[in-house]
């Protein structure tokens, strides 16, 4: 039946609901109209016998955080307005208020009190009307009375008015209640029960209206049982579940009152909606007995208050129950313990990310945003907006500004001023190009709900695309908050400077106020956050298994090595299952599993143990490992159906067992291009280039700077060379582990070479280590572009002045070749088309720069001159003498003083050994 939009205010609203929605959401609001055939039957007095039908319209409105459906109307327009009206109410958008001053608001509130108790209001479809139905069935002196608290809970307008009268109403439901109580007393037509929070109309309603309401609030036929969550005030007591039973004869508010041990339903306060605006999930708690003169802080239910962003006192019940506009029947839905913990977890930036990826144990908020196609899960900007909404802050403001490229180049190149002059630009920016270097910076401001500035973030990094600037900055802000919220004991004065060299300004007072609740909740319970998995002290299994990083224990790897493995920058798809294990009680329960979970290796998108495990596997291999279990909250958030049962068990001394399998690996664009567009692949051509120089110079010793997973060293073993000793250095432990495995396998099999020893070191190639000195040949292939430019200079200086190899071969991408690579279409479904049309980007997300030929030559020439080397330029891929040169440019440095004594080179700091020897081989080939 078509209902008309409720009109209870004194004056007409200034904006239509649709206009309000448009103001807030613009094109993000989508309306959809559905036709409904309504059959008019006998029940309709004005119509002739027989059946007729007419077309009615119903409107579906989808907003980013809410979807609503209107009643049916004869006009589409009305259906749309009605849907918008419902959304406006649900979202609490301050709208059809005529008041702006507290005085006006007070008068309107008093008027509203009378307005609610009129025949006109009772004929509307307002959810409050059903409460009147309950009241009108009640016998005795409570006939016709409703709890004031349901007015606070159901009427958006009352709430909005209260906020104008007293801003504290925003966060304290007690303030709303006391204002309603005062307004009721001030209103002529209603009366309250002495000392109680019951309210009713002085006079009666018209019989027609009473009949209408009694008909409308049809009774519940059977007894409903609904699951709710009980959040005790006492922090030591655990959150648990309870069941609410409601029936024809039992008002749900009464049932809640009973469960909370209070006399009647007027003593129960209802919070605003928690979580999705489209639900009716609310907290119910008793009115504190001694409202005045008592230190209310003591009565505060900290967990529930933190959870809801409102002051909640005493023990609380979290339930999804209530009357809706759509139907007069009681709506209710179970709230499980698991969903409570998920919502709780979702209040933290990394928690929100974990929940959104449905991988609570596996996912982590990534520390870097490399590209849109590699980012899995909701984009950082959306995550930040959700975070702010969760904290009841205003939407964050992003301001993108253009930065003068000169200014930037001096900022970025740091102590390495030479770079600027090389080509007038910095890494990757070729000023010869017509797409002049537009560099964008993004600042982010965070405001409280009342528009006070809480923090301003201004990051040094610059981007070429606006969306990159925004997403990256949003991610940094998220990570900043995440870190901050995990170190709440940090003094507020310190937080501005904490975590980075970027310019972060925090307004301590306003900031501390907004996040005070965190302190009170997490301050008490240190253990909320999943700790870094330290040692597994009591882990009872076979300890001969090697221990990994972070106390992880990796069990046997299943399946043959396919040779294709997840390396940094690749997208890896895994399947995994995580089980909770508690050996004493024989518990092993799968809590989370995923058949396909994709992430970018090296960005911190998964817990470190999964990354460490996965980088040791190749496609189709699987492995198991265990880590210490995280906190109870996180376990229950992931536990789904089992949460209720598990919550009964003591969850200490548990561990998590992961079983992981690598399904697919998508290599970084650079690797795919090098393979697809060059034959043999560029990496192979680089190896052959190195082999030529090794054999030409009869080198017997080689050090590979930045050896990664050992692809060069490995390939060298397949060639006949003069080498007897090979050494690799890298800062990636994971890559080194992989290199060790590959070399070990090959060296113990092969008999084709005269290799005598092989070593792998974990350390930075910008750090002097005497064990890397005096080699015949040094290689540094596709490494320098992974370091900041000043570090690339530092490496050059150290390599040529201290390591002093006779020959040093350095390769790096030629930026000028990129357009050719980009034009050749490598099938690449994930890369969005927008990226292709834009300016050239780097070949690999991890590249800090890519140099044009002139920039690379400038670097190499300068270093050669400084350290008495000669240098020659060459390359692989394409032709050197045809524009734009080789795809991969190579500099070959040769030491001018050829018989420099080894001691002379290493004498500076003879026994400086900052690198860690992680693997060595000096056996003879197994024949
Ligand atoms: N040379 C290898 C790997 C290239 S990828 C190949 O051609 O396949 C770049 C490598 O440089 C990565 O393995 C990275 O860990 C390493 N790297 C980056 N900065 C480094 C540093 N300061 N010291 C040592 N290795 C570094
Ligand atoms: Mg590279």
TrEMBL record:
EC number(s) stated in the UniProt entry for this protein: 2.1.1.386
Keyword S-adenosyl-L-methionine applies: yes
Cofactor: Mg(2+)
InterPro entries cross-referenced by the UniProt entry: DSRM_2, Hen1, HEN1_dsRBD2, Hen1_Lam_C, Methyltransf_12, SAM-dependent_MTases_sf
Keywords of the record: Magnesium, Metal-binding, Methyltransferase, RNA-binding, RNA-mediated gene silencing, S-adenosyl-L-methionine, Transferase
Coiled-coil region(s): none
An annotated Gene Ontology molecular function: metal ion binding
Domain Small RNA 2'-O-methyltransferase Hen1 La-motif C-terminal: 225-347
A Gene Ontology biological process term: RNA methylation
GO cellular component: cytoplasm; nucleus
Keyword Transferase belongs to the record: yes
Catalyzed chemical reaction(s): small RNA 3'-end nucleotide + S-adenosyl-L-methionine = small RNA 3'-end 2'-O-methylnucleotide + S-adenosyl-L-homocysteine + H(+)
dsRNA binding domain sequence ranges: 22-92
Domain HEN1 double-stranded RNA binding: 349-485
Chain ranges of the Methyltransferase type domain: 703-794
Top-level taxon in the UniProt lineage: Eukaryota
UniProt record similarity statement: Belongs to the methyltransferase superfamily. HEN1 family.
Protein name (Swiss-Prot/TrEMBL): Small RNA 2'-O-methyltransferase
Gene that encodes it: LOC109724964
């Amino acid at each position: 039946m078509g209902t008309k939009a409720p009109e209870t205010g004194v004056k007409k609203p200034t904006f239509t609901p649709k206009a309000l929605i448009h103001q807030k959401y613009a094109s993000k609001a989508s309306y959809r109209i559905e036709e409904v055939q309504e059959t008019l039957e006998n029940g309709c007095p004005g119509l002739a016998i027989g059946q007729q039908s007419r077309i009615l319209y119903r409107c579906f409105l989808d907003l980013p955080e809410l979807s609503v459906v209107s009643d049916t109307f004869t006009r589409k327009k009305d259906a749309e307005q009605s849907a918008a009206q419902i959304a406006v109410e649900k979202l609490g958008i301050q709208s059809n208020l005529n008041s702006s001053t507290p005085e006006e608001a007070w008068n309107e509130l008093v008027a509203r009190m009378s307005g609610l108790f009129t025949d006109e209001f009772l004929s509307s479809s307002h959810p409050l009307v059903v409460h009147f139905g309950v009241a009108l069935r009640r016998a005795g002196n409570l006939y016709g009375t409703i709890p004031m608290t349901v007015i606070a809970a159901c009427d958006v307008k009352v709430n909005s008015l209260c906020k104008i009268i007293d801003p504290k109403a925003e966060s304290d439901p007690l303030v709303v209640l006391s204002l309603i109580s005062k307004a009721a007393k001030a209103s002529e037509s209603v009366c309250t029960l002495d000392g109680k929070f019951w309210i009713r109309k002085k006079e009666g309603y018209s019989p027609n209206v009473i009949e209408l309401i009694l008909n409308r609030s049809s009774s519940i036929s059977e007894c409903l049982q609904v699951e709710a969550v009980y959040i005790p005030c006492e922090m030591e007591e655990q959150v648990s579940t309870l069941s609410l039973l409601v029936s024809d004869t039992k008002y749900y508010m009464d049932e809640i009152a009973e469960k909370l041990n209070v006399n009647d339903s007027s003593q129960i306060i209802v919070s605003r909606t928690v979580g999705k605006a489209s639900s009716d999930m609310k907290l119910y708690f008793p009115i504190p007995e001694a409202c005045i003169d008592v230190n209310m802080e003591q009565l505060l239910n900290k967990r529930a208050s933190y959870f809801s962003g409102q002051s909640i006192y005493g023990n609380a019940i979290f339930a999804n129950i209530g009357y809706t506009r759509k139907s007069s029947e009681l709506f209710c839905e179970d709230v499980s313990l698991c969903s409570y913990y998920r919502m709780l977890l979702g209040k933290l930036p990394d928690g929100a990310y974990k929940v959104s990826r449905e991988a609570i144990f596996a996912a982590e908020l990534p520390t870097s945003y490399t590209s849109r196609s590699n980012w899995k899960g909701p984009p950082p900007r959306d995550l930040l907006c959700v975070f702010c909404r969760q904290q009841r802050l205003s939407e964050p403001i992003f301001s993108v500004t253009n930065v003068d490229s000169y200014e930037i180049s001096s900022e970025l190149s740091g102590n390495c001023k030479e770079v600027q002059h090389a080509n007038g630009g910095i890494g990757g920016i070729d000023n010869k190009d017509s797409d002049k270097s537009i560099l964008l910076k993004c600042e982010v401001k965070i405001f409280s709900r009342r528009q006070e500035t809480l923090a301003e973030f201004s990051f040094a990094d610059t981007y070429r695309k606006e969306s990159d600037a925004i997403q990256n900055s949003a991610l940094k802000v998220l990570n900043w908050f995440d870190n901050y919220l995990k170190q709440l004991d940090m003094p507020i004065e310190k937080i501005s400077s904490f975590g980075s060299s970027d310019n972060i300004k925090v307004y301590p007072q306003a900031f501390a106020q907004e996040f005070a609740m965190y302190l009170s909740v997490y301050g008490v319970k240190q253990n909320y956050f999943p700790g870094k998995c330290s040692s597994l002290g009591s882990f009872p299994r076979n300890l001969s298994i090697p221990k990994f990083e972070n106390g992880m224990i990796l069990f046997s790897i299943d399946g043959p090595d396919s040779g294709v493995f997840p390396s940094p920058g690749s997208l890896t798809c895994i399947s995994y299952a995580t089980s909770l294990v508690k050996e004493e009680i024989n518990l092993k329960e799968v809590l989370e599993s995923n058949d396909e979970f994709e992430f970018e290796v090296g960005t911190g998108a998964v817990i470190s143990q999964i990354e460490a495990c996965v980088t040791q596997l190749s496609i189709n291999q699987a492995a198991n490992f265990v880590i210490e279990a995280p906190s109870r909250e996180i376990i229950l958030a992931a536990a789904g159906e089992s949460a209720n049962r598990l919550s009964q068990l003591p969850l200490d001394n548990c561990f998590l067992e992961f079983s992981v399998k690598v399904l697919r690996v998508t290599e970084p664009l650079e690797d795919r291009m090098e393979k697809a567009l060059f034959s043999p692949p560029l990496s192979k051509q680089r190896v052959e280039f190195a082999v030529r120089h090794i054999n030409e110079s009869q080198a017997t010793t080689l050090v590979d700077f930045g050896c990664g997973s050992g692809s060069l060293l490995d390939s060298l073993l397949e060639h006949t060379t003069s080498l007897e000793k090979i050494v690799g250095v890298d800062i990636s432990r994971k890559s080194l582990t992989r290199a060790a495995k590959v070399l070990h396998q090959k060296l113990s099999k092969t008999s084709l070479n005269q290799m005598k020893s092989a070593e792998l070191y974990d350390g930075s190639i910008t750090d002097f280590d005497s064990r890397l000195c005096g080699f015949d040949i040094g290689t540094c292939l596709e490494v320098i572009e992974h370091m900041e430019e000043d570090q690339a200079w530092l490496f050059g200086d150290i390599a040529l002045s201290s390591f002093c190899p006779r020959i040093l071969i350095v390769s790096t991408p030629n930026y000028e070749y990129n357009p050719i690579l980009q034009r050749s279409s490598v099938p690449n479904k994930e890369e969005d088309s927008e990226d292709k049309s834009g300016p050239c980007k780097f070949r690999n997300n991890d590249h800090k720069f890519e140099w044009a030929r002139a920039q690379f030559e400038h670097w190499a020439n300068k270093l050669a001159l400084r350290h008495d080397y000669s240098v020659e330029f060459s390359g692989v891929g394409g032709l050197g003498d045809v524009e734009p040169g080789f795809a991969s440019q190579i500099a070959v440095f040769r030491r001018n003083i050829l018989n420099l004594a080894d001691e002379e080179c290493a004498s500076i700091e003879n026994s400086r050994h900052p690198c860690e020897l992680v693997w060595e081989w000096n056996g003879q080939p197994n024949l």
